[in-house]
Amino acid sequence: MDRSVAGIILAGGQSRRMGGGDKTLLSLGKVRLIEHVAARLTLQVATLMLNANRDPARFAGTNLPVLADTIEGHAGPLAGILTGLEWAAADTGYRSLVSAAGDTPFFPGDLVERLAVAARARPGAIAVASSDGRWHPTFALWPLGLRDALRHFLVEEDNRRVSAFVERHGFVEVEFPMLEAGGERIDPFFNINTPDDLAEAERLLQSLEP
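RESULT FIELD:
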């Protein structure tokens, strides 16, 4: 656990490809998807919050603080990251924020550790996870000092592209290995967008269980 890092789970999306509602509250195995993500990230950060809009009561079972976007308009993952940066900056004990998507249950248990090592080698840069030749900017370590620039990017420039903000402010990419289970290679950042993805995640969960 890195006591200088706060964590945020991004669950503010509208789940259109899942038919609406909250896909993070769907069951995967014996627990809900959001609980898989929270259990994995809780072990890696000093404190953890959940970013979601509308009624926070539906996440009461997670025992996590739930904060809505601090800007209006459902501005996507960057709005959730801004919410987390501003929340973490209110406590002087944290230096950075790690973000994780709420629909990605198999992400690495050493995510924060490896991102933090890369960030120390490039002060001020955003450390972004990648796998199998693709980067995953919703899984990143964000310096708290970026919050004003991010608010300007979202509000004044009306730009919601995560990759555009990351590229503008400089980043270091951290490659994570594929998982090996049952004779197949599994992307640790496999995310669930559709009912078919959820069925595939159920299959992968059984393959990854010891």
